[in-house]
Write a structure and sequence with these properties.
The chain has helices spanning 35-49, 85-93, 102-113, 171-174, 177-193, 212-220, 224-248, 258-277, 280-284, 297-315, and strands at 2-8, 12-19, 24-31, 56-60, 64-65, 70-72, 81-83, 97-101, 122-125, 133-137, 140-142, 163-164, 167-168, 252-255, 287-290. The model has no long low-confidence stretch (mean pLDDT 94). It is globular, with a radius of gyration of 20 Å. Helix content is 42%, strand content 20%. The chain is an alpha/beta fold.
């Protein structure tokens, strides 16, 4: 059987046709714009795929209402206000459809196709532009009352610090691509005011061009300031994970994006904090691993959303 997946992103959106084994048969991406025009274009493209899909899945950043199938004004999707995307796509193709928060959909993808295979209790962290979590508990997705469970990025880990999720010192503020950029700017500005310049920022004019990637490159080249920034990020990652591990007692934690690319810069300080903060019994039961699906995770997430839409339609539960 074939399934349609829609991956709605702030810059790019994609539609794809694939099967329940995660194989992508057809895929096309477009620039994200006005919701009506974007969805019309994606649905027209999907109509040319053929393949008689049995269901459709939509992966999108929140906030949204998974149960009602409505996108609710995500900050990275201006103009996408109260978009009843499930009704639109379901009616267009006459198939069941399901909307998932992208962190939840990615959690399902890593659980079924990636680093979480075989897990009974898994937590997935995005650790990309932002920080969100998807929860697989007792062998099933847990999404909360309306799909907003797992918003760990909103936790405040310190009274002051980088801003993420609209909150200074938040988990997302310290542990996201944008948060690492802010940390880099803080460190660089202080050094520049002392007449020193870190490798990743030679002057004040370069402050805006700092990125998590440029700091990582400097760290791998041996720059002690860049390495200190990633060490600080790893410490806060450990603090956030300690809450998750003690509270949920997962067997697997899967972390994507930045952690995939810079695990060796983050893990030492992360593990030091975990050993200090976690219950030993809980820490000994969990493995913490980088995500395995890489750049394909968005496609796999949209596809698994469609598979679960068909399953839910068939037996009334996920």
């Amino acid at each position: 059987m074939n399934y349609l997946g829609f991956d709605i992103g702030g810059t790019k959106s994609a539609v794809l046709l694939g099967n329940e084994n995660g194989e992508i048969l057809f895929r096309e991406a477009i620039s994200t714009g006005d919701p009506v025009q974007t969805l019309d274009t994606l649905m027209n493209i999907a109509g040319n795929f053929g393949g008689d899909p049995v269901s459709a899945g939509i992966s999108c950043g929140g906030p949204l209402d998974e149960k009602k199938g409505v996108i609710l004004s995500p900050p990275n999707l201006p103009g996408w206000d109260d978009i009843h995307v499930v009704d639109i796509i379901s009616k267009h193709f006459s198939v069941p459809a399901k909307l998932y928060n992208d962190a939840n959909a990615c959690a399902l993808a890593e659980w079924k196709f990636g680093a979480g295979r075989g897990s009974e209790n898994m937590v997935f962290f995005t650790f990309g532009t932002g920080l969100g979590a998807g929860l697989i508990l007792n062998g099933a997705l847990y999404s909360g009352s309306n799909g907003n469970a797992g918003e760990a990025g909103h936790w405040r880990l310190a009274n002051i610090g980088p801003v993420g999720y609209g909150k200074a010192g938040s988990f997302e503020g310290f542990c996201s691509g944008g948060g690492i950029k802010q940390l880099g700017q803080i460190y660089a500005r202080e050094l520049l005011q002392q007449g020193k310049a870190p490798v990743f920022c030679p002057d004040f004019e370069s402050l805006d061009s700092i990125s998590a990637r440029s700091i990582a490159e400097a760290a791998y080249a041996g720059d002690p300031v860049a390495r200190e920034i990633y060490s600080r990020c790893g410490e806060m990652l450990g603090r956030g994970l300690a809450y998750v591990i003690d509270f949920l007692n997962p067997d697997t934690v899967v972390i994507g994006s930045v952690f995939e690319r810079a695990e060796d810069l983050l893990r030492p300080s992360m593990e030091k904090i975990l050993e200090k903060e976690c219950l030993p019994q809980a820490l000994n039961a969990v493995k913490i691993v980088p995500a395995a699906l890489g750049d394909s995770i968005g496609d796999k997430a949209a596809l698994i959303a469609a598979v679960f839409a068909a399953k839910e339609n068939h037996d009334g539960n996920i």
